TrEMBL record:
GO terms, molecular function: oxidoreductase activity, acting on the CH-OH group of donors, NAD or NADP as acceptor
Sequence similarity: Belongs to the short-chain dehydrogenases/reductases (SDR) family.
Boundaries of every Ketoreductase domain copy: 234-413
Pfam families per the UniProt record, alphabetical: adh_short_C2 (PF13561)
PROSITE patterns, per database record: ADH_SHORT (PS00061)
The name this protein goes by in its record: 3-ketoacyl-ACP reductase
Length: 468
């Protein structure tokens, strides 16, 4: 459904009225397109603290965004990367103010601020306090920037470990992601399993691991795939793919080179087949809550699976006092029970190959709660617990990463049915002042399907003012 308020604010009367009343003026977000695949403008690299992160300039250059360290003259930065990994004391936090204060006003519309922090030290509580302070700083900055600009904090042990995350956050693909804290691990011990490869020049990057048991021997030097098709040669399964966010995820994964198997209930088969035809994939009509769903998926994918996206979900809204037991159980079974059962089977059977990625769909409702959705919020909070518990074990035992996306207000048929005033509140109550699109969730899912992050729950909500 069209956002008529946002359209009105871009007319002369709308600009005048909203300014006088102090109402939000959402800026059209610059999302990825074939004509505009990257942010347009210079990237400014700044440093706070005593010791800069080694190799950061080179890592940014490899992402296709060679940074500037000096004055930009009259040019407005499209992105600012602040290396704050060396901030270890409260006094050093003054550097954060000193470096960013002069430049935040000059940033281009829809610009990006990425602050790089260090993992919190369990042995140095001064360092941990200073680094944790960066989280409050970034979340607040994201709510101040305006103009479609975003701010993120990336905690990383090295520059090379953060490359894939920087490539996503400093691109139009992250348009509706703001105020997030991403913790990047050094996954070098799983290099061959996760597709982390070493190129001739010694640079590390991300390449898709093979789906079948024909993995490259350890130590072999592999050339990285073309950045535009990072999933080439991999098979991806997307559940709940007949419409909405699931369809968008299928389209983006196919754009990135994957062969996509789309799954939905048999009653949605006509729509599902149309999606499969559009993305050049395969339709798999199947009730994901069936007891044998895992076995049937495995049988349909004899060569295995590189990416598993759990997107299927339903709502059956009622306040708890008015909620029948079947409304509770059906939502929990589709949104959470089926995820647990199928994941367990597909990992145990080896259908999800080493080097695979599992991405589940949580929700802001599961993080902040929502009146009338105790069932839905419980199921989506359960997804968060699933990710946090399974991620380290899945990586250690199967060489598979597990992450989740948590959408906020996304413009779908489901949110179009929400009452008008509640719908407007959902759109405006975030730092970007507008609802997101299914493609915003899909782009974040695609990043998690290729990146070397694990155990993360990334909120795709424009930095919702509740629970974000």
């Amino acid at each position: 459904m069209a956002d008529r308020y946002a359209t009105f604010t871009h007319t002369a009367p709308g600009r005048f009225l909203t300014r006088r009343l102090g109402l939000p003026q959402p800026v059209p977000l610059r999302r990825w397109s074939p004509r505009h695949p990257a942010i347009e403008g210079p990237v400014l690299l700044l440093t706070a603290g005593d010791i800069p992160l080694p190799g950061l300039h080179e890592s940014l250059t490899r992402t296709g965004l060679p940074p500037h360290s000096g004055p930009l003259g009259s040019r407005r930065p499209a992105a600012v990367v602040l290396d704050a990994t060396g901030v270890r004391t409260v006094a050093a936090l003054m550097d954060v103010h000193a470096t960013l204060h002069p430049v935040v006003r000059s940033m281009a519309p829809c610009g990006r601020v990425v602050v790089l922090g260090a993992p919190l030290s369990p042995a140095d509580h001064h360092q941990a306090a200073a680094q944790q302070a960066l989280e409050g700083f970034v979340r607040s900055l994201g709510k101040e920037l305006g103009g479609g600009r975003t701010a993120q904090l990336v905690r990383t042990p090295s520059a090379s470990a953060a490359e894939g995350t920087l490539r996503f956050l400093l691109s139009p693909k992250s348009a509706y992601v703001s105020g997030q804290v991403v913790e990047v691990e050094e996954l070098s011990e799983y290099a061959d399993d996760l597709g982390e490869t070493e190129c001739a020049g010694g640079a590390r990057g991300t390449a898709p691991a093979p789906d079948a048991d024909t993995a490259t021997p350890r130590g072999t030097v592999i050339q990285l795939p073309h950045p535009a098709r990072p999933l080439a040669g991999r098979t991806a399964l997307v559940t709940g793919a007949a419409r909405g966010i699931g369809t968008a995820v299928a389209e983006v994964l196919a754009r990135d080179g994957a062969h996509v198997v789309v799954l939905d209930v048999p009653s949605a088969e006509p729509d599902l087949c149309r999606v499969a035809e559009r993305v050049g994939g395969t339709a798999l009509p199947l009730d994901i809550t069936a007891d044998d769903a895992g076995e049937r998926i495995a049988a349909a994918l004899p060569d295995g699976l590189g990416v598993l996206v759990h997107n299927a979900g339903v709502t059956r809204d009622r306040r708890l006092a008015n909620m029948a037991a079947d409304r509770w159980s059906s939502v929990l079974d589709v949104n959470l029970g089926s995820v647990l059962r199928t994941t367990d089977f597909l990992l145990k059977s080896g259908t999800v190959r080493r080097g695979g990625r599992i991405v589940a769909t949580a929700s802001i409702a599961g993080l902040a709660g929502n009146a009338g959705q105790t069932n839905y919020a419980a199921s989506k909070a359960g997804i968060v617990g699933f990710v946090r518990s399974l991620a380290p074990r899945a990586l250690a035992e199967h060489g598979v990463t597990v992450n989740a996306v948590a959408p906020g207000f996304i413009e779908t048929r489901m949110t179009a049915a929400v009452p008008l005033l509640i719908r407007q509140a959902g759109r405006r109550m975030n730092s970007l002042g507008q609802g997101g699109l299914p493609v915003d969730v899909a782009e974040t899912t695609a990043w998690l399907a290729t990146g070397a992050v694990n155990g993360q729950v990334i909120r795709v909500c424009g930095q919702s003012l509740l629970g974000a």
